[in-house]
Amino acid sequence: MNTRNIVSIDEDLCNGCGECIPNCHEGALQIIDGKARLVSDLFCDGLGACIGHCPLGAMSIERREAEPYDERRVMENMINKGINTVRAHLIHLKEHGALDLFNNGIEYLLEKGLDVPDGVLEESCEDEIMKETGSEGTLACGCPGSQVQTIPDHRQGSEKHYDKRSSHLSNWPIQLMLVPVNAPFLKDSDIVMAADCVPFAYPDFHEDFLKGKVLLNACPKLDSAEHYVRKLTEVFKTNCVRSISILHMEVPCCFGLVDIVKTAVRASGKDISMEDVTITVRGEIKNSTGTTS
CA 108 to CA 72: how far, in whole Å? Predict the structure, then answer.
């Protein structure tokens, strides 16, 4: 289990008034034996929406080992509580800067074909957002800067000379957090799963790795590994992915990207060819090997 922030309840102070219950939108609290109890670590985001509603100051945030918070399970349970509860939850996440969880919650709604509550997204996003369709895909934030695109190869049909520094990028967005699981460019694809630092370190990244492939990038150290495992699992389940090239740096924290992809492939039940490529901080290929899930 990971160490993270989570709600703590002082049972000596708690009188079981229940004021905290309706203010825990995630459903992590219940009154049991006359006291407020945290019934599941999975449902407590550790942001403390309930704390200010306790009249006796019995609630606080502590840092301890706890099961990872599961936004998708929270959203699944919260749907039955109604649109106002969903809205309050999502706004709470956004106000506390928990944008990875916020995007995950929006993504869940769109995957289920449900409307995003009014007032949750900025107006520019609300104008763009749409339910997922089989042809276009939808982002957690429908802002124009994150609109799904397939980029044509500008070299085709042209005699103009392009050196090897020309772009081979064929899709947008590329950040895994923003890519919809049903984006059209993922169908029948060969994926380059690159750690964020790789394209900066390796000078011929486009020419040597990206031609004819779909690019996804993520940071295994700074981003949520649990979220990326879930996201990639859905990507592999939803689409026919022919192969995955996992590119990461030689620094130890970067090898986590390999575990993320392999775990997601196993969870998807798919048989996908994988290549593991390690890049040195000097911009050289240290090794390249085939790998199995």
Answer: 7
Helix 99-111 and helix 71-78: axis angle, to 10°?
50
Q: Which two tokens stand for residue 282?
A: 């000097």
How confident is the model over 210-223, as pLDDT tens digits?
999 999 999 988 88
Helix (H) or strand (E) holding 35: strand 35-38
The two structure tokens encoding residue 270: 């798919």
CA distances (Å), origin 256, targets 47, 191, 263, 275: 27, 17, 11, 15
CB 116, CB 129: distance < 8 Å = yes
Q: Which domains does the chain have, with CATH numbers?
A: 1-68 (3.30.70.20), 70-132 (no CATH), 148-154+165-291 (3.40.50)
Q: What DSSP string runs through 50-95? A: TGGG-TT--EEEEEEEEPPP-HHHHHHHHGGG-HHHHHHHHHHHHH
Q: Do the bridges between strand 214-218 and strand 59-66 make them parallel or antiparallel, or are there none, so unpaired?
A: unpaired
d(CA 130, CA 139): 9
Assign 140 to helix, strand or coil: coil
195 secondary structure, DSSP code? E
Whether the bond between 173 and the residue before it is cis, its omega within 30 degrees of 0, is yes
Q: Which of 199, 111, 183 lies closest to 150, judged by CA?
A: 183
Question: How far apart (Å, rounded) are the C-alpha atoms in residues 245 and 256?
Answer: 14
Residues in the chain where the model's pLDDT stays below 70? 1, 122-165, 291-293
Q: What is the pLDDT of residues 81-96, one digit of tens each?
A: 888 888 888 888 877 7
What pLDDT score does 138 carry? 43
